[in-house]
Amino acid sequence: MLLEVKDITVHYYKVSAVRNISINVEDGEIVALVGSNGAGKTTTLRAISGLKHPTTGEIIYKGQRIDKLPPHKINALGIAMVPEGRRVFPQMTVLENLLLGAFLRKDKDVVQKDMEEVVFKHFPRLKERTSQAAGTLSGGEQQMLAMGRALMSAPKLLLLDEPSLGLSPIMCMEIGKIIRDIHAGGKTVILVEQNARMALALSHHAYVIETGNIALTGPAKELLKNDDVKKAYLGG
Ligand SMILES: Nc1ncnc2c1ncn2[C@@H]1O[C@H](COP(=O)(O)OP(=O)(O)O)[C@@H](O)[C@H]1O
Ligand SMILES: [Mg+2]
Questions:
Q1: What is the pTM of this model?
Q2: Which domain holds residue 123?
């Protein structure tokens, strides 16, 4: 098991946003977390990446407890998050944004190589725009930049929060294809999506989160056929 989220509860002040959630991620999988707005998907990713510490439960990555570590330590262990809404730095160039992703790395000689062989391989459009201000990119390109920036930390596990949100159907398909390619290149992925159809089509396993609880889990292909899932998340 690459990542075990064991029975975590996460609070914002006194209110719990997720309760006793457990998620298992095998090395090499794409695991989807689907659910409506406010269900607790982002909170779960924030707990894994160290931005929000759980009040109870454990998170174990490669056999090591990480639920009390700060985000930069978790990033250094090989977990990178692409946040909801991309969060690129609009005034900075594409290149500067990408380099920020490698900020913590000591192996600076390999960083340049990764930019060429990993980031620009998946996102040739970014290579054409290295000196362009990130704020002038299209929504889809900003999503690519946010994903490229995360890849610059050379993660083993990539956490993607709503990568398709606000994008055109064609751009969604392109992002979906890139997620497949990144996975094929050796990354394990946790994919959070309100677009359940896309997420289930891309993933191996999936968890349905409803108001802070796991309502359902199973192989993604089975959830695609599940009547409750169809009714609630796939438009009947
Ligand atoms: N910073 C915050 N402060 C207080 N409550 C929050 C905060 N962020 C999220 N919440 C609450 O936690 C719950 C889960 O939110 P979130 O994890 O963002 O859901 P999702 O990503 O599935 O839409 C919601 O009820 C939301 O209002
Ligand atoms: Mg969210």
A1: 0.96
A2: 89-154
